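User: Structure please.
Assistant: Input sequence and predicted structure:
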Amino acid sequence: MKINSPFQTLPKECLAAASQGMVYALDNDIILKVPFQYEVTEEDLEQAHCWDLSLRSLVAMENESAVYQALQESPHPNFVRRLIATRVDCLFLERLETLQNAWPKAKHTQRYRWALDLLAALSWLEKIGFVHGDLAVRNLGVDRSSHCLKLFDFGSSISRSHPDYSNDMMRDHFGLATCLHFILSGIDPFATVRSHSEAIEIRCKLESGQWQVAKEAEVVADTIQDGWAGRNGSMRFNQLFDRVANTFHRLSQYTTPTTLVEGHYQKLQSRCQDWLRYAQANPLWKDPDEYVAACQHVGHQAVLDDWR
């Protein structure tokens, strides 16, 4: 079954191909994220689950775009920067160093700073009315210039008006605990998971307090254990920020990291525009309503709202 993207030709280096979209390196400083669409034909009706994956990818792009639009109006330095705001079928984003790669080179004081950076980002996201929905180590990166931690990948994000907001907030508290544990100790309990059953087993251990917090993370062991056990669900992230900052004895020293000068981002935006100037649109690409109509035409009852 053929897979289509908004462009006929994509960059050569694919960094990730997941259920919510595909990520490519435009160069060392820029990434391109695109949704995907499995081609819809009557012959492939038995593979209709692939069309549902496509719908999920389209909705994920909607979710990300909504968050980045809100961040454009209310910016914060602990989020990845969107470079072009006019596209609805793709995202151009600044490229970071992965947290996993940056971690071994950081001193413990820098790791404390990263923990507070993450809490600052989540506090801001909550303030502007969103929950991340998929908070994990893989969705954190480090700015190569400012060395601050930044949050990205908002394909699962929903707004405060969504009926699942409270449940996703609880999920983010659990994810925060896992991220804090990794930031401070370098240990992600889920790093070696190879199956769904194994992930469930580890999660049960974390929720029931059977997982030993690593020595390097013991400074905020209560916060981590409470997050895993679901006891932090009623707390706002800015309250957790204050709690952790006080534990680090760094509240008076923490300042919001400065952003890079706009000239830097303007240069990146120009490079994105240069790429778009030569990129050819894929004539087989459909907007979300067209894709739903194509699915329904061949007998698959696709409903976009089921994935929103």
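The two ends are 25 Å apart (CA to CA).
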